[in-house]
Amino acid sequence: MSRDRRDHKDVEPAHSDADILVKVPDIGDQYYPDLIITGWLASNGERIDTDVPLLTISTEKADFDVSSPACGVLEIIANLNALVRVGQTVAIIHPDQ
Q: Percentage of residues in the chain with pLDDT exceeding 90?
């Protein structure tokens, strides 16, 4: 599997105060702090609802779905197959007006 290391960013993307940041959750596995985005389950620009699965992240042990923390329009920040860290922003949800 090819890993896109350039997406391994510690800088937060620009966003408004009303936007909701989708961050990589702590999956409780201290041995695998870096994860790989192995699937986006929603598309960039798509309107999504709260608690809908957005993406799949993987470690060497398991795969995990990350759900939307809010409803709104999805803006994907991190690419498919990107290497990401716990707490890193991977998407922004622009809330419904």
A: 63
Q: How far is CA 20 from CA 16, 46, 63, 90, in A?
A: 9, 15, 24, 11
The model carries a pTM of 0.79
Residue in this structure with the two tokens 């896109």, named with its chain if needed: 4
Sequence-distant (≥ 6) Cβ neighbours of residue 63 within 8 angstroms: 38, 56, 57
d(CA 19, CA 27): 24
Instruction: Read off the DSSP letter of residue 7.
Output: G
User: What are 35's two structure tokens?
Assistant: 């994860």
